[in-house]
Design brief:
This protein is mainly α and 120 residues long. It has two domains: 71 residues; 37 residues. It has four helices and no strands. Helix 2 packs antiparallel against helix 3.
C-alpha cells in the first residue's frame, strides 16, 4: 500500500476564514427561514450553473463572477460535510489528471473516434 502523501494547501488561511464566516451567516439565515441548509446550497448551485451557462452563451463576461459565487457555494457544501477543502481538492486534482491522461491515451490509440464525454 502506498503511503499517504501530504495534503497540499489549495486554499489560503484568508480564504478559509472568509468561507467559515460566510458559512456561519448562511446557516443562520437559512435557519431563521426554517430551511434545510444543504438543500438551499444545492438549489443555489443549480441556479448558478444555469446562470453561468446563459451568461457565457451570450458572451456576457459577468459569468466569471457567477462562477466565483458557484465556487463559494461548492466550498460551503464541502465544509457542511465536515470535509477538508484542501484534501478534497488534492483528491480531485489526482482524479482529473488520471481521467484526462486516460482520455488522451484512448484518443491517441483511436484518433478517428469521437472523444468520450468527460465526467469530472
Amino acid at each position: 500500500m502506498k503511503g499517504k502523501t501530504k495534503t497540499q494547501r489549495s486554499f489560503t488561511r484568508y480564504a478559509g476564514k472568509q468561507l467559515a464566516a460566510i458559512q456561519r451567516l448562511s446557516q443562520e439565515y437559512n435557519g431563521k427561514l426554517g430551511k434545510d441548509h444543504n438543500q438551499v446550497l444545492l438549489e443555489l448551485i443549480r441556479h448558478h450553473s444555469d446562470e453561468i451557462t446563459d451568461l457565457q452563451r451570450r458572451s456576457n463576461g459577468h459569468y466569471i463572477i457567477e462562477t466565483g459565487d458557484l465556487l463559494v457555494l461548492c466550498c460551503e457544501l464541502i465544509r457542511e460535510a465536515g470535509a477538508s477543502l484542501d484534501e478534497i481538492m488534492d483528491n480531485c486534482y489526482r482524479r482529473y489528471y488520471a481521467k484526462l491522461n486516460s482520455l488522451i491515451a484512448a484518443q491517441n490509440k483511436n484518433p478517428g473516434q469521437r472523444r468520450k464525454k468527460r465526467n469530472g
